[in-house]
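Mods, move this if it's the wrong board.
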Amino acid sequence: MEQAEIGIFGGTGIYDSGLLTESKEITIDTPFGKTSDSITVGIFKGKKVAFMPRHGRKHTIPPHLINFRANIWAFKEMGIKRIIAPSAVGSLKPDLKPGDFVLPSQFLDFTKSRKYSFFEGEKVVHISVADPFCPELQNALSKAADRINLKIHKNCTYVCIEGPRFSTRAESKFYKEVIGADIIGMTLVPECQLAREAQICYASISTVTDYDVWADKPVTAKEVLETLSKNVETTKKILTLIPDLIPQQRNCSCEKALTEAQF
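Not the wrong board. Structure tokens:
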């Protein structure tokens, strides 16, 4: 089995990393079916890194049909200890502008029909996601943004919806005014909680593509892609800095997530 230290899930607009040397493509069979695509494994800054496009290389998989369990399982099988997960989001706050970057710290789950756990058999597991993201990875992402003089919004709440449709005006205003979330997307859940079950460190970095529909202008896929295309290079700059900014040894609690989670 090919091994790696760091895993990257490419979100909308990022279908290849363009960072790896000595790269090769591999496929991994999982108990949960096929992964979103083959996995590119290579060397970057002396570390083995694996890259997988979350929606497939040609963006053929909608959010509600992503096989999150297979994707996380495959990274776990490769020995990956840390996952960086870029994603595209809509803004629910006027000061989070299209083109801005956000480091979410909490999520609200409004998905409906996904597979949320690896444990559906003999074991009953209740993992804690009180703090869903690895603090060490969040710190590394924050430092990376500082190094390229990029303002990044922190302590934000990501509301995850089922998709693939965008919200109605009523829904958007509900998430903004009643729930009080900051950004809205379709892929964070259950990806982050499955990573926690797999005891893998995980952090998300989100690119704001639009103001969602609360701002009275309907969201279009074209608008999302146009904004993302302008920010892909910035996202890649952040990713290039991460290997040098994460500690060699993990000192967070992510790798012990199952210790007190089982009955």
